[in-house]
Amino acid sequence: MQTETLLYIILSGIIALLVALFQYRYKVKQKSKTTIVLTFLRFLSLFLLLLLLVNPKFDQIQVYSEKPNLILAVDNSNSISHLKQEDVALNALATFQNHTRLNERFSVQTFLFDSDLKPANTPNFQAKETNIAKALQKISEVYKTEIAPVVLVSDGNQTFGNDYAVPNTTYTQPVYPVVLGDTITYTDLSIQQLNVNRYAFLKNKFPLEAILVYQGHTPVTSKFTIRQGSTIVYSKVVDFSKTKNAAIINVTLPANQIGVSSYKATLAPLEHEKNTINNAKNFAIEVIDQQTNIAIVSSFAHPDLGALKKSIESNQQRSVTILQPADILKTIDTYQLVILYQPDYSFKNVYDVLARSKKNTFTVVGTKTNLRFLNANDTSFSHNATRETEEYQAQLNLNYAPFLVEAINFESFPPLKSYYGDVKFQVPFETILDKTILGISKKEPLLATVEVNGKRSAVLFGEGIWKWRAQSYLNETSFANFDNFVGKLVQYLATSKKRSRLEVSYESFYTGTSNLMLSAQIFDKNYQFDARASLELLLKDLNSKTEKRIPFVLKNNNYQVDLSGLKASKYDFTVRSKTQNISKSGTFEVLEYNIEQQFLNADLNRLKQLGQHTGGTTYFATQIEDVIEELLENKNYKVIQKSTKNTIPLIDWKYLLGLLILSLAVEWFLRKYNGLI
């Protein structure tokens, strides 16, 4: 408290005392005990009132203890139950959660992980995928600035994701792996991997590569077989030994029928083999009768060309050729879509040929585009010719109708660079992405499509789309979302099929039952997205003949239904609106495959590497007490005593106001009682 404030408090006491004495003691002839009480009450009331006016401030110090965090990350994948470790995992979890000394020392936080990290619930060990690296990374992000050692209760078997055994340098928390599962190496034969294309062309042969692995010491012989239904289409006897513990088989199979063809590869198990599930794998291939050919025409090299080619060819049904303007003139009839990248005067003959052939086009406008030439040759729009450039970011138009566009966080993508100036369309157009600058929409299209007299075209008003593909990978650690977006745009442009008011997105076949999702969009008669519709899925299992109805759920700008966990079979489906006479049907197949059941034992080596690289120690499930003792004895994990200092003004103290009211009330009552009022 400052000296000046202290002087004000003393002065307030003196003033209050003088006023009280003047009112009740000065010139008062009869002095009684009541007068003394009234004098004190008047002094108290005046002093409290003056004290509130001075309003001194006091420092309040609160001392508390902060425990370090202890993170329990428990593997919830199906491999735990496959290795018969459910009870062991649950007992380990209960031991950590209920240990008295551990809870006194640490703030214990429990998480489950499979394909993602989740808040603690009772594990069911049914998840079909495991990503240990992602779980550790998310824990790192949440507890980045805190002390938070991690106890990882897992078998160490990861099915996808980055290598978790060597965490990146941003992860600083020590990890203590608790190993679930047998670490003994058993004799085992397995089909480690099948490499096969998703598509094949009718009347051609498609290649298949099978990688077979043997764990054991004695020489053995097995038979590798590929069946289509009950028919054996390939077989070969394979020999293994301690030194020859792997075999690669390459075979070509015929594609004789359009549609999805399912196969089963089998490696005959040994007599006493413990795990025979990994001896067989199902695969399928979709046979198509033609490939979509796309030309990218550009007069100069640019990273966008490679990005577009990679994205489009991520679907093996499509082939992309990059050409100079003069090279496409004689072969234009072989392409279903022509991408015109930043056209200039060298494109003059190309536009003449396109006008005669009525090919669908996709035009990219950038800083090297000749706008005067483009305005003179493209009749669908005009762009004000200026020398100024601008950078535009994207905002998804949720009402885009021609095909289903999923939100892939376009707002996070880097800006595209193009000329500044107004764009005017001379024909009806649909906007996929709007331009924004610093988050403010310009109400102008960044990416738009046009459909006139059966001819389709699209225009992107910006260069640098290669940055979008790179950013998509940074966001999702995969190019899939961006490639799917480009693929849908190309599919729409490469065909002239009349658009439907109901669009359904699905695959012809799915390997396993994880992440099996159907998406749909429904539009009103003006082709505006209808967010009030009620869609349902009628699903029929063609093998068991069972049927069920599943409602769609609205998510962002599309309707979705999650079919994860669907059993392996062939299915017919119909998506229909409950309120309108609109429906669409299709067929897909789910192949039987559970990657979590391919493991024979725990991955001890990788768990040990994880512990060593992070400064932790690896333990077995029988050594839970040893883990706890190490955590308790580690001096780096101390309870930290902290304090907070709060400056509180006296006027915030409500009890003082209550005391003031009480003293005034008592004084008034005594004066009234003694006839002084």
Task: Note the total helix count.
Answer: 14
Shape: extended
Distance between the termini: 41 Å
Q: What characterizes the major β-sheet? A: 9 strands, mixed
Order of strands, widest sheet: 16-15-17-18-25-24-23-20-21
Low-confidence stretches: none
- Could you report the average pLDDT, rounded to the nearest whole number? 86
Evaluate the radius of gyration.
Answer: 37 Å
Helix amount: 25-40%
Strand fraction equals 35-45%
> What is the number of E strands?
36
Question: What can you see in these coordinates?
Answer:
The chain is of the alpha/beta class. The strands form eight sheets. Strands 16-15-17-18-25-24-23-20-21 form a nine-stranded mixed beta sheet, covered by helices on one side. A six-stranded mixed beta sheet has the order 4-3-2-5-6-35, sandwiched between helices. A five-stranded mixed beta sheet has the order 8-14-13-10-11, with no helix packed on it. Strand 23 (429-437) and strand 24 form a beta hairpin. Helix 2 packs antiparallel against helix 14. The two termini are 41 Å apart. The model has no long low-confidence stretch (mean pLDDT 86).
